[in-house]
Amino acid sequence: LFVASELESFIRTNDLKFLEQVHIQVFEACLVQEFAEVDIDEWLKIFQNLKRYFFIALCDRELCFASIQILKKFFCHPKMQAFVLENTKEVFVKTLTLLYNPCLLYTSPSPRDQRGSRMPSSA
Fold this sequence. Notes:
It contains seven helices and no strands. The protein has 123 residues and is mainly α. It is globular and about 45 Å long.
């Protein structure tokens, strides 16, 4: 919990626009053990502050699997599930729109790659 809290603080303090692979890996490592009952409120606070980053990471091929694992940990926890579902609707819909709207997905540069289009080279 301490490492996740420090990572959250670092991300917010530095006003990061997106997460790099190392951030996702560190956070995922923090979730290896089950959540302690006494820590659930703190974990929910961290999730609330970082949820948009995890959803944005779903749009990145290098980060999506780890991001899915992180989101799954929160979405599937019986004591967190209702809160997480209720508080992620808007960002979830925006992420689905980005993922399934070909115009946005293939013409917008990746947040991590400002060099150009995400259109596959075979297109």
